[in-house]
Each structure stands twice: as C-alpha cells, then as structure tokens.
Specification:
This protein is mainly β and 379 residues long. The protein has two helices and 28 strands. It is 8% helix and 34% strand. The strands form eight sheets. The protein has a four-stranded antiparallel beta sheet with strand order 1-10-11-12. A hairpin with a 5-residue loop joins strand 8 and strand 9.
Length: 379
C-alpha cells in the first residue's frame, strides 16, 4: 500500500468515525440538518431517535420518538409552534450550551433554556429518551425531561414547574393540560380562552374523598420502570401489565384523557394499560351543544334542534337551527334522558322540577338544566 492509499484510507476512516459519532453526540459548533434524513441522534440501545420529524408537506419539527414502533410515536418536540421548512433548516449546539432550531432563512424558532456559564461538552440522547446538553465535568446544563410536551416517560418527573399539554397528530397543542393545581394536587384542566375548568378528579368531590394530600412540601410525580405512578399528592396508579421489561409512556391525548400505554414487542403496537376515566367524561370533548355518546366507541352527536359545525371535526360542537329568544313563552325544553352535564359550574339547589325549569326560563343565559329526581328529598 503506497502513501496515497494510506492517507485516503485514514481520511475515510476519520470521516466514517465522525458520522458515527455525530449520530450519538452533537458537538459544540455542529448541526443536524433537516434535508439529511440520516442526520439524527440515537442512544446506545437505539430505543429512541432524535431529529427532524416530518409533520406535513415541507414542515418539520425537531422531536424525539420511539425508534421501533409500527406507527411513529413522538414523545417530545421543540418547535411544534413553529415548524421549519424542509430545506436549509437546522438545529445547532453552541459552545455555551445553547441548542437552537433555525428555519431556512436563519430565523430562530426555538432555543433551550440554559442558565450556566459552563462550556458545553456535547448533546446526547440517552437510553431513557432524555435529550441532554452536557457541560464540562459531565454536569447537565439542560435536559428535555424538564420541559415535557404531551408525554411523560418512565423516571421522568412532573413538577410544579412542568405540565403536559395535549397535542394532535401535527403536534399542534390542544386545550387540555395535566399539572399541579393551587393545592398541589395533580389535576386535568380544560383551558379555554378566559377560564380553566377542572374536570379530573371530579371538582365536586372534596379532597379527602379523592384520597389526595393537598399542600405537600414536595411537588412531583413519577412513573417508575415497573409501570407504577406515584405523586406527592398521593395520586397512584399502575399499568395492568405491571412489571419490568416493558416500554411505556404516559400521554395526555388530544381528547383530554390521560392514558398509560405499553408497547407489544412482537406487534410493535401500543395498548392502553391504564386510563384516568371513561372518555365521555372529558369536559368539552364534543364542543358547545355537543353530546358524547358510546357507539360503542365514543362519538360526538348534536342535541336536538342543532347541527354539526364542522363535519371533519365534530369536537367543534353544534350550532342551533333556531333563534334563541328570551321570551319564555316562545321556548320549550327537550328532555335528554340518561344524559349528564359535565361542568360542575352551577351549585346544587333543593327545589322542585317546575321551580328549576322556571329559573332557567327567566335567565337569558340559561340554555338548559339538569335535574336529579329524588335527590335529598327533591321532587
């Protein structure tokens, strides 16, 4: 072998080594480019992948997902509020530990939160699915586990400073969230424009009946490797297939329900092994004037006299096919048997059915009422 062949072989080996290293580590000054589909980070066991995820035509989001599932399952995303173009976009690690996502025109669309003057050593995706930026002395300058999106992975804590927010298939955030409330209780919220509703656990049940501990000095919760969740407020649940050796994720789905999933290694598909409550009990699931029914799967229908607003998304609710009048003489009520209003925003009063009906007719803001016959002596 002559000197030229030796140099060529050496340069080729270095090039291959750099490409292999780039898939395990991202060094300061280096980037992952959106147009290179192989430009991704992988942990040693290859359970997860970190890179640009194609969410729609020419739109990409820097994300982390399970590597070996039948359908791509994203567990974390950075720039979901601002996807980048399919060419010229990149994620870059700076020497000071800042990791940034830039669009094709150089516009900054996402940046991690680094509070340290330490020089970055590398960015790395761990076997746990946690993306970290490591500094000198192997200290962690930043980690994705501290900023979850809609999913918690095993051994990832939810704290007073973090929350889960539902997201659709395009990673667009929804209006449901899971986080600690003012009493330090883990709670599901329906976040509307001007108001947030608590819908789980049931807000009309007192704290002790919920078997929760309010105002705990520590505020956190974690799903362990066995599939058991424990919160500082005494929220506990476990997977139906409780045990080691199973890949799991706790996800706040777009329909507002919190589900624990387990992965079948043979079929590479997810199955629900715990669920917070029946789907139709999610507040606002079917929108204004919508009714959630089991067929047997949950589906959205309209109240009598109403029609679907958007056939492609029944969760947007229904609109009336009539003009609502404040004149009680012109309006009448339609009975909806075996139907409950999940709102808990009206106090219960012990009155007769006719009094309850009259109260609603006299209130222009009242569209309907619920009445429990025989409760506490009411007629």
């Amino acid at each position: 072998m002559d000197a030229r062949s030796t140099i060529l072989l050496l340069l080729t080996s270095i090039h291959l080594l750099l490409r292999i290293s780039a898939r395990e580590f991202l060094l300061p000054g280096s980037s992952l480019f959106v147009e290179d589909s192989s430009d991704m980070l992988h942990p040693p066991d290859d359970t997860f992948t970190c890179g640009f995820n194609n969410v729609s035509h020419n739109a990409f989001v820097f994300s982390i997902w399970f590597s070996n599932t039948a359908e791509k399952t994203v567990v974390w995303s950075a720039n979901h509020l601002h996807p980048v173009y399919s060419w010229g976009s990149q994620v870059m690690l700076h020497k000071d530990g800042r990791m940034v996502v830039e669009d094709y025109n150089g516009q900054l669309v996402w940046e991690n939160d680094v509070n340290s003057s330490s020089n970055a050593k590398q960015a790395q995706l761990l076997d746990t699915g946690n993306l970290i930026v490591m500094g000198q002395g192997d200290i962690i300058l930043w980690q994705s586990f501290d900023s979850p999106t809609d999913t918690l992975l095993p051994n990832q804590n939810i704290t007073a400073a973090t929350k889960l927010v539902s997201a659709d298939r395009l990673l667009v955030p929804g209006h449901y969230s899971f986080h600690f409330d003012d009493e330090h209780l883990l709670t599901l919220f329906d976040d509307q424009k001007d108001l947030s509703f608590i819908y789980w656990p049931k807000p009309d049940i007192n704290t002790w009946a919920k078997q929760r501990y309010p105002f705990s000095t520590t505020v956190d919760g974690v799903l362990d490797s066995w599939g058991y969740f424990l919160g500082s407020d005494n929220l506990t649940f476990k997977a139906a297939d409780w045990g080691l050796g199973v890949m799991r994720r706790l996800t706040l789905d777009y329909d507002g329900n919190l589900r624990l999933y387990s992965l079948s290694r043979e079929k590479r598909k997810w199955s629900v092994t715990w669920i917070a409550f029946p789907t139709c009990f999610v507040h606002g699931l079917c929108g204004m004037n919508g009714i959630c029914v089991y067929t047997p799967m949950p589906a959205c229908a309209c109240a009598p006299g109403h029609e679907i607003i958007d056939q492609s998304d029944r969760r947007k609710g229904c609109r009336p096919k009539f003009n609502i009048s404040c004149d009680g003489q012109e309006m009448k009520f339609v009975k909806l048997p075996t139907t409950d209003f999940i709102g808990y925003d009206q106090s219960k009063r012990i009155v007769s059915f006719h009094t309850c009906k009259k109260m609603c007719l006299n209130d222009c803001n009242c569209k309907g009422f619920s009445y429990w016959q025989g409760v506490m002596g009411a007629n």
